[in-house]
Every structure is written in structure tokens, then in C-alpha cells.
Amino acid sequence: MENKNDIILVEILTPQEWRTLARDAHLICFGEERDPLMDRIDFALINSKGGDPLNYCTVRELDSESVYWQYGGAFPNSKGTGTSYFSYERNAKWCFDRGYKRVTTYVENTNIAMLKIALKVGFRVIGTRTFNNCIMLELLLEGEWKTKK
Hints:
Layout: E1 9-13, H1 15-30, E2 43-49, E3 52-63, E4 66-74, H2 83-97, E5 102-108, H3 112-121, E6 124-131, E7 134-142, H4 145-148
Parallel strand pairs: 4-5
Antiparallel strand pairs: 1-2, 2-3, 3-4, 5-7, 6-7
Helix pairs in contact: 2-3
């Protein structure tokens, strides 16, 4: 299990920088291709440790205080190691440190591992949505989170 004190870096990528990596990242993490032009994002966050990529998260700014984490994935070298939790927590801290007060995202209801991570970080379920025959849980992390960490 990873230690919280291990250094996980957060790198921000522009939509153009992300587009060059998106197809491969999604293929590596999920074993399927997705058109990188589907990502309507303002930036992407890449987590790494020791130069090795761990996870990614694509982000859309909804307003000056709110962001939506659109897509994300864990690279094979980080799956099952605990870094997904620390990366998720690190991305939340990164967003709140930049003045955002709300982070929303959706997680498929059958993705129990991701739901556990999100709830442990402090997200709460605020709704449901059906998309492509999947039930998605809408999750929210609000500003008071920053004072707890």
C-alpha cells in the first residue's frame, strides 16, 4: 500500500496536449479506444510519481468556483497499489488550492472500487443518471473539504 507521504505530482495539460495522449491513455487504462475529440475539457490532470504516470483526470470548468471531472483512469502500474486514492485526494487538493469550491463527477454504480475511493476522499452522492444503459452516481465534493485536509 502506498504511503500518503509519497510524492505524487500533479501536472496540468492543455486540451491540445491532452489530445495527443488521450487515445493511448484510454486504451491502456480501459482496453478500448475513444475518440479524443469527445473530450470537451479545459485541462487534464496527470498524476505521476518518480516520473511514472499513475492516473489521469480530464476537467471541465463549469464556472469560476466549480469543476467537473469528466473522465479518469488508472494506469496498470498503479492499479491495486493505493495510489488511486492518494491521486484522487491530490487532485481534489489541487483544485481547491486553485480556488475551486466544488468538484462534481459521475461514477458508474458497479464501479465499487472507484466509489469507495471517492467516498473516502469526501465526495457524497447527490443524484443518479442513466447513460448508455448504465446507472451513474453523481458525486459532489464541496469547499468545506479543504479545511478538513
